[in-house]
Amino acid sequence: MAYIISLPLLALLTILQSAVFNDLKLLDGRTDLILLFVVAWGIHGRSREAMIWGLAGGLFLDLLSGLPLGITSMILVLIAYLVSFTEGRFWEANFLMPMGVMMGASIVFHILSLSILFLLGKSIEMDYALVRIMLPSTFINLILALPATQLIKLLINSIYPPEVKI
Amino acid sequence: MRRIGTRTLLAVTLILLAAGILLLSEGGILQPVEDLILRPISSIQGWVAVRFSAIRDLINSPTDLAELRARNAELELEVAQLQQEIIGLQEQVAEAQILSSLLNYARSQPENRYMAANIIGKDTSPFIRSVWMDRGSDAGIQQGMPIVTERGLVGRVEEVFANGSRIQLITDPEIIVNVRLQNSRADGALAPQLSGEIWVDLIDQDVNIGPGELVLTSGLGGGYPSDIPVGEVISVRKRDYELFQQVVIQPSVDLDNLEIVLIITNFQPLPFETNP
Predict the structure, then answer these.
(1) pLDDT digits over A52-77, tens only?
(2) In chain A, what are the domains?
(3) N or C terminus of chain A with fewer C-beta within 10 Å?
(4) What is the CATH code for B178-252?
């Protein structure tokens, strides 16, 4: 059931990212819808699925990008894996936790993307990338962290309704 | 402990799977699969882009919006219908204006054959400057074909799929375009910066250049037809100890708001090498 809903949803989010959200910029930073989806899914304790969404979402993103197919998948799987370590911690219930995790995930996502572009021999201006892309994107992702986690929570609850004792 | 073990195993497996896909893709083996997946995605992307463009145009025209609001207060039902009609008509007028200017441009360049295409999306990575158009190999598009508007050069076709292609913009630091300054006749090469600023480098130190001078494609190297406007000089950077001088240019085309572009289909570019 999760696959039937999530895979088309990931494709739709990628299309929205390319056709709509890339025009809604803060400096040159934009929201990363797939990253929000994967991290929010992982925060709710479904880390295995989050890693699979990372693979699929990354492939969709790379299809609509000049990046080689598979690069973003590797980054997102790694991020979903790192997010899984937040499971079962004492601060898990804190309502600010999604914001902290999203900020960390966003920074790791951009640093890894930049590193891979650097390794591929692309021209990178670090000052520009940091100030005009990475920080604004992280800020937007941070703002959207709470709504995204709430929406994903609703989605997860509708796919996997909580068990009720009778 | 065991839970962490299986989780790590899954992460490693998925990363290796992604690496395998990367290798297969770089070898070109996955091209048919990419075509198959991109076909519906490009169609939906085009549909979404047109609707988003209509909504954006409506928001960006405050007088029309105020007028619609006033009418809405008087006749809610009628205006709801009119509003829909207006959005559609505004889009048609805007599209007709763009197509009309593109047609005039095409008529003024009879030696070239053109095909129009809609821009349907931007690159999903903020670090890569490219856009997507709704024409691909099904329409005869080939890699390297130059892309223009009536104002000047947009870029070149970088990647071709069945019903969509990726255009490398002239703001992409990887692009190679040989240019000529119109008045001073000096040759140079486009050197776009990641910040979006476009420089022209490799200009002889002895040449006198002033702001406002037009920069055109030179046709050298065989990558683009000659005499397509690229931009206008806004400042000159000349240092005595350097071999060459550079100029900063303002692109002729507003690359952030592209809607319809022209592909020059009868130009056969020579193979490119990427910037080191």
Answers:
(1) 999 999 999 998 888 888 899 999 99
(2) 2-157 (1.10.1760)
(3) C
(4) 2.40.10.350
